[in-house]
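hey so i finally got around to running the thing on that chain from the lab meeting. sorry it took forever, my laptop kept dying and i had to restart like 3 times. anyway pasting the input first so we r on the same page abt which one it is
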Amino acid sequence: MSPEDDICFYDPSFYPTEETALEYFRNSPFYDKQCNNEILRMQMQYNANMKININERLKEMVGVEYSFRENISNIFIIQKSYRKDNEKTILLDLYYIMNGIVYKAPTDKSIFTSRFINSVASLNKALDIYNDRITLFDEINVKKDDEEFNEILKILADYKLR
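ok and heres what got predicted. didnt touch it at all, straight out
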């Protein structure tokens, strides 16, 4: 887990729209101030005559860049990628803005890990309950010399996750 996973950002003075989502994201701690977007912004800031299409200009640069990916029911998706050339980019991270709050999107690995841990915990709980019932059943109905049943209990104990 990275430190960014536990951070969110909210600016009460600026509510993002589809047109301003990237600008809003720029104020968040997730934004890398040395990205290509910032380099172009600084160039444009001091050159009033510079009229460029930022997306076209970003394609000519190599390095980290941010782009507005999509708007899904007022949830704005921001993509962080590394551009190798004008055609090839590598996705680094995804962020989303929901109700004016910027979050880092979870990775596939973190989602899988979380779900796997939850399923193992549930399986462990189920085995505890099963083991309690088998022990109760064993004490009431099963004779100590029932080898087949005792073998099953040993196998189940081997699968117990602790």
